[in-house]
UniProtKB/TrEMBL annotation:
Its main location: membrane. It is found in: Membrane. This is Ephrin-B2 isoform X2. Residues 30-170 form the Ephrin RBD domain. Belongs to the ephrin family. It comes from Podarcis lilfordi (Lilford's wall lizard). GO terms for biological process: axon guidance; blood vessel morphogenesis; ephrin receptor signaling pathway. Residues 1-27 form the signal peptide. Gene3D superfamilies: Cupredoxins - blue copper proteins. GO terms for molecular function: ephrin receptor binding. It comes from the Eukaryota. InterPro entries: Cupredoxin (IPR008972), Ephrin (IPR031328), Ephrin_RBD (IPR001799). It holds the Pfam family Ephrin.
Length: 180
């Protein structure tokens, strides 16, 4: 028996459709512009934070930038958390919330990548549902010594455990992932 080359026209057509569908799905996911999480980021709008509209399959980097030797100023220490709407509105972090990102290394960029996916193969991976809002806030502290000396994670409206006049713009560092 002689093997036929090329297979049936129907099989080739199905294979072509499959390849086309895979390319379309892969091309539709985006790597979103990274968010540099600090109080000088002009993308955070007063009173409303930053609102993004990612799609399933998109990726987003949240970056705590390192201290630039050319700029003067103090490094901003943060812990970044994903919280529910009530926590975001009241700027509170529960003790069982796990930080997504700990911005505590002034000499290097610290990055956390969020992949917007409905199912994660990772036990601790984030999963997102379509048409549901997600919120990210931070808990900030002025210097490294304060990180371990705090007695609780409840924070005031500025999403900071410091007085309002000690940290500027921190209340605007809230992100809402809407319309997934």
């Amino acid at each position: 028996m002689v093997a036929r080359r090329g297979g049936s026209p129907f099989g080739r057509c199905c294979w072509g459709i499959w390849v086309l569908l895979c390319r379309t799905v892969l091309a539709s996911s985006l790597v979103l512009e990274p968010i540099y999480w600090n109080s000088s980021n002009s993308k955070f709008h007063p009173g409303q934070g930053l609102v993004l509209y990612p799609k399933i399959g998109d990726k987003l980097d949240i970056i705590c930038p390192k201290v630039d030797s050319k700029t003067s100023g103090q490094y901003e220490y943060y812990k970044v958390y994903m919280v529910d709407k009530d926590q975001a509105d009241s700027c509170t972090i529960k003790k069982d919330n796990t930080p997504l990102l700990n911005c505590a290394k002034p000499d290097q960029d610290v990055k956390f990548t969020i992949k917007f996916q409905e199912f994660s193969p990772n036990l601790w991976g984030l999963e997102f549902q379509r048409n549901k809002d997600y919120y990210i806030i931070l808990d900030s502290f002025i210097n490294k010594k304060q990180e371990n000396s705090r007695s609780n994670f409840s924070v005031i409206k500025t999403c900071s455990n410091q007085r309002v006049d000690e940290i500027t713009n921190v209340e605007y560092l809230k992100m809402q992932f809407a319309g997934l």
